[in-house]
Amino acid sequence: MPERSAADDSQPGAKAAAGRFRGLITDWGGVLTNPIRDTVNAWLRAEGILQDSYFAVMRLWMRQAYAIGQAAGPIHLLERGECSDEDFERLLAASLVRIDGQPASAAGLLTRMFAATVLDPTMPDLIRAVRRAGLRTALLSNSWGSVGFGYPRQMLSELFDAVVISAEVGMRKPEQRIFTLTVELLGLRPDECVFIDDVQANVEAAESVGLVGVHHEAASSTAARLAELLNIPLPGFAPNQEASQVSHD
Predict the structure, then answer these.
(1) Alpha carbon distance 50, 7 (integer Å)
(2) How far lies 226's CA from each of 67, 165, 171, in Å?
(3) pLDDT at residue 157, rounded to an integer
(4) Cα 201 to the chain's mean position, in Å?
(5) Prediction pTM value
(6) Domain 3-34+117-230 is classified in which CATH homologous superfamily?
(7) CA–CA distance, 98 with 45 (Å, rounded to integer)
(8) What is the topology classification, in CATH, of domain 36-113?
(9) Quick one: which of 7, 203, 210, 247 is 20 to 30 A from 62 by CA?
């Protein structure tokens, strides 16, 4: 079930921020962490897996996961908790080609795939600044199995008033109902919330429900956009800093 610890409005700084928006919802992997493509590439290099073999199968699975009218594929099922880690790992490992010609190891593949994940050094502070300004905050993340991103649960309870992990609620982005659930957990309306994600399809899905979307490419550009939308100071962030290019799903 999603976690929730509502902000105490009696605490200093917990007054609702002036303006239209009262909530901020954000993705995890690729937004609060380093780009997922960087993490995956580190794993491919470490295990001597040919990139072409990985991206060939992943392009197909991603089309199935995001294209309208496509049958549910392995990513879709994994993120909704309808496919076990072990089954997904076996499917993916069977599609991979190693440089030395040996088969890829399936056991623990998801843990190894995300082993190079690290927190972005600035994004958690950005969430804290938004929360201090009085907005409610939520995490909305498509999880890759029970290990996946290795969510730091203690940090999540510090940063967020509500936590929605796809496999724990049986739905996933870009399904509209998962956005509706997250907004409801914050006790807000969709038009009172801003949503951040590094996947454009998820941003568009959030906007179709009534949220205002921010496509994350770099902390600096996201901070600049949030400062503009929320009309709050974000100390320590340089809106005019040139944004570095980030990629992923």
Answers:
(1) 47
(2) 29, 23, 27
(3) 93
(4) 12
(5) 0.86
(6) HAD superfamily/HAD-like (3.40.50.1000)
(7) 10
(8) DNA polymerase; domain 1 (1.10.150)
(9) 210
